[in-house]
Model the fold of this input.
Amino acid sequence: MSVDLSVDLGGIPLRNPVLGASGTFGYGLELEPFFDLRRIGGFVAKSLTLEPRHGNPPPRIAEVAAGMLNSISLENVGVDAFVSEKLPRLPEGVTVIASVFETEIDRYAEVCKRLSGVPKVAGIEVNASCPHVKSGGIEFGQDPRVLAELVRAVRGATTLPLLTKLSPNVTDIAEMARVCAGEGADGLTLINAVQALDVDLERRRPLLWNGLGGLSGPAIRPIALRMVWQCARAVDIPICGVGGIASAEDALKFLLCGARAVQVGTASYLEPRTCLDVAEGMEAWCEAHGVARVADLVGTLGSHRP
Amino acid sequence: MSAAPGPGEALRVEAEVAANRREGGAGWRLRLRAGPDWPASRPGQFVMLSPGAVGAVARLDPLLPRPMAIYATRPGDAGAEVDVLYQVTGRGTALLAEARPGERVRVVGPLGRGFPEPGAGEDALLVGGGTGIASLYDLAARGAERGARVAVLLGARGADHLMGRDDFAALDVELRIATEDGSEGTRGLVTELLEQALAERPGAAVYACGPTPMMRRAAEIAGARGATCHVSLENRMACGFGICLGCAVPRAGEGFDLVCREGPVFEAGTLAWDGLP
Done:
């Protein structure tokens, strides 16, 4: 039996549902030595700002139970260098979604404009987990009014398929999903890293230079599954699930909870081939379970109650 | 199976453990069968190793691989054999010490840029402290092969912590040792040996790997005499190939370099030493 693994993510056709997650896949080129990027659904590149940016001083990462903390901040080559230097080196046939983050709404819109019409950019993912300067540093994705304003602005700046990546650091993630759908987002990506803190006891200070960081890895997977499930019940636009995926089984659980596609993040650090292993493993699972189309699994989570 | 890597490209393999044993004192030697596709590495390059053997069930805690210097590579019956010297310093290395022959360890490498190699007739002073010694063996061996005049200065807390000393002693290099407790060689710091050696061989190039204060002092000593100094840094890393951006260190001037990509070897003057982790 051949399994149809293709899915459509808000107007972005994917050959299979597995994408490399932004911030864990570089600009794609870094993973090329390890496998053919055309064999996975695609990847979301490292988030881009208008100008090149340096990140935070070290320590930037720390290992914690079944996961890691990071505080890299905005480090990236800038949108223009991405378009002129990184994209041309990727082979044809690789599906690339550009990720955008900025500190002000008009700058987000400007980055989106510069990505529009660029060959090889299949869509844009707006990272809403960036501190909003005018709101005193609260994340764009933490205030529904600011989030609405952001999605409206970027929607007006590009006709490319538009995904909004949601912050999990909110009380009601479904409300944020509805806001994005209402402002014309074509899809949602969730979740970003979970805000967290760990401590160097002997030196009595945080492990990270920045103090707070983002928790990622298998530790956050059940939180991500819960939030994907809640958002899938709240909106009709497709969802790309991300958070702690390290195996095909992990990925399939996200599909049952309502995700149309998934992203592999932290797992690519320890095993650069994880995306490919997950895609191949999903196919094998579907074959073994008589599932002809992987898309048929989306949102089929049952219940204990009759 | 993916194609063999191009020049300078890293490979990901599950390497069979050929041997993994204590090597007197605190040091361990892990020998891995990296296979026929394993590319030649340059002195100073490193690998990322899974924390312990890869089992039937993926280990999620500890999650991240550990960066380790490539100590030496030799041809084996079934392709390259890569040696890594390490000490048990935490959860990851404790699990690595439990890996038995026949089990497999995930290896990504060779990674990073290595040391510039000293040429024939050139004076090279290699300064190693503690586990940093492991980064220098290949450089010493190749330098001697190429006809450089190599002196290796090793320092450790005590004789027990001198990793690989017999290997260095078997090379055509001059070997000088300092221990803090005086249990072998001179009592004192390896940087004191460097001051002396550099006075004897003005114009020598200095190569250092060890604790940050040791490397910083080595760079000062070299700088005072106008000698070049390359240092090999350690840092926390999640990936080793430039995607996590976790191993950044500050440059002199502004901005950061990644230890995995621009390093681990740096010309000492390019670093902002005060900001190193």
User: Anything to note?
Assistant: Confidence is low (pLDDT under 50) at residues 1-7 of chain B.
